[in-house]
Design goal:
This protein has helices spanning 12-18, 40-43, 96-111, 114-123, 148-159, 201-205, 227-232, 250-259, 302-319, 329-333, and strands spanning 2-6, 24-28, 47-50, 65-68, 87-89, 140-144, 163-167, 194-196, 210-213, 238-241, 264-267, 287-289. With 335 residues, it is an alpha/beta fold. It starts with a strand and ends with a helix.
Length: 335
């Protein structure tokens, strides 16, 4: 019998499906409960479902599997999961659709300068300038990182007639044992028109109309876009960052916008939470700022999809099958 501890918000349908899996006992815990007040059985948990490590995490000596109720797993870097040989899976795929839709919305809005149109509306200005009528069909969108978000962005982009370039450290291949919403993404890795790998960053960037960052935040990706990368883009290119703010060096981005190295940006992830009201990024007329809502826990399908990953992984775990979204030792270390 395997003990399963749930440390996240309950999704009734998901919990009902979980109860049909044989060979498990289920407990629901208060994430803030102190170890001294916990039943001993809780500390003997084999499977933990949580967003952040609970205060008693270090005392859970029977733990075998951690299901993270988020895509990002930076909070787990310092817990030595790989060294302890603990298995961990994230909720990769839960937000792919929403964030990919944000990416496409920002491509259209940047291309047509929606911010200026709204300013014109607010001031009662009738302006039919050519920049408000630009088509995106035939434009080149470059996706840096080709996980689930990148693949769903590629699918939508191709449907709209965009040319898709991908930069992925090790190239593009079929994606196995990864959660995705049915009929979305690019599981076989066949959609990109051209694929670039490590060392080809300058060539990749120089050809783009839109750069979409789709990378996790790791030790090797923090600051991966700096002066050199932003200067490599055409001055007509736009940068979209729905991934993690620190992927782009803050000072380099500000300089690029001030000096016109790029045409503009759409930013959903930031350097401060919340962004201070006096931060200069708020005031660039060619920047769209959204408060980390491209895909979040408030979207209508979040609980349903997150629990779908978890329940399926418990089933696979008890049956000895490969898990969905399992993180590698190097990912768990943040390499």
């Amino acid at each position: 019998m395997k003990n399963v501890l749930i440390n996240v918000a309950i999704h009734p349908e998901g919990l009902q499906r979980l109860n049909t899996i044989p060979g498990i006992t289920i407990r629901i815990a208060n994430p803030l409960q102190e170890p001294s007040t916990l039943p001993e059985e809780v500390l003997k948990t084999h499977v933990l479902f949580c967003d952040v490590p609970p205060p008693y995490f270090s005392q859970m000596n029977s733990l075998e599997l951690v299901q993270i109720a988020a895509v990002g797993y930076e909070r787990f870097y310092d817990l030595s999961l790989a060294e302890k040989k603990l298995r961990a899976c994230n909720s990769r795929g839960v937000f792919d659709v929403a964030i990919a839709e944000w990416n496409i919305a920002m491509v259209v809005n940047l291309a047509r300068d929606l911010r200026a149109m709204i300013r014109n509306q607010e001031s009662g200005t009738w302006d039919r300038a050519a920049r408000f009528q630009r088509e995106i069909r035939g434009s080149v969108v470059g996706i840096w990182g080709y996980g689930g978000i990148g693949r769903e962005t590629a699918r939508l982009a191709k449907a709209l007639g965009l040319i898709v370039y991908v930069l992925s450290r090790h190239g593009v291949s079929p994606r196995l044992n990864t959660y995705r919403v049915p009929a979305t993404g690019d599981p076989e890795g066949v959609l990109p028109d051209q694929i670039f790998t490590a060392g080809q960053e300058a060539d990749f960037l120089s050809r783009l109309d839109f750069l979409v960052l789709s990378l996790p935040k790791t030790k090797s990706t923090i600051g991966i876009v700096g002066d050199k990368e932003l200067r490599a883009l055409p001055q007509t290119a736009f940068v979209l960052n729905p991934a993690r703010g620190p992927l782009i060096q803050e000072s380099a981005l500000l300089t690029a916008l001030r000096e016109g190295w790029i045409a503009g940006a759409a930013l959903d992830t930031h350097y401060h939470y919340p962004m201070p009201q006096d931060h200069p990024l708020w005031r660039f007329p060619n920047v769209i700022m959204t408060p980390h809502i491209s895909g979040s826990t408030l979207m209508q399908h979040h609980g349903e999809r997150m629990w779908e990953v978890f329940v399926e992984n418990v089933r696979r775990y008890t049956s000895g099958e490969p898990l969905l979204n399992e993180l590698s030792p190097s990912e768990l270390r943040g390499d």
